[in-house]
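Saturday, quiet lab. Running sequence design on the structure tokens for the scaffold JK sent over.
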């Protein structure tokens, strides 16, 4: 019985995810058009369900990793550049 349920879940997982993702996207689009319902609350989970298995998702993740690495390198370089500098500005307060 366990093995059969596991096999059924493996077969049904993708169509269920796609159906739920499309339904959330439709509700989200309706929410953008109707002033009663906030659409973005449904659009983001719908996209999260629809996108993970596409080539675009993998490309976007690789691109984000490269950008994150570049930002980290620049942040480290900026930290190293300001670490040796001393604060030579005059103290704030009323002038005597």
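Result came back. Writing it out in full:
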């Amino acid at each position: 019985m366990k093995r059969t349920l596991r096999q059924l879940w493996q077969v049904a997982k993708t169509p269920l995810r796609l159906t739920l993702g499309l339904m959330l996207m439709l509700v989200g689009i309706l929410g953008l058009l109707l002033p009663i319902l906030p659409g973005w609350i449904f659009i983001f989970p719908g996209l999260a369900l629809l996108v993970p298995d596409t080539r675009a998702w993998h490309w976007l993740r690789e691109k984000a990793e490269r950008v994150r690495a570049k930002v980290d390198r620049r942040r480290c370089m900026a930290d190293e550049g300001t670490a040796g500098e001393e604060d030579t500005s005059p103290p704030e307060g009323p002038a005597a």
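Notes for JK: The mean pLDDT is 79. The first helix runs from residue 2 to 33. Ask whether to fix the surface positions before the next round.
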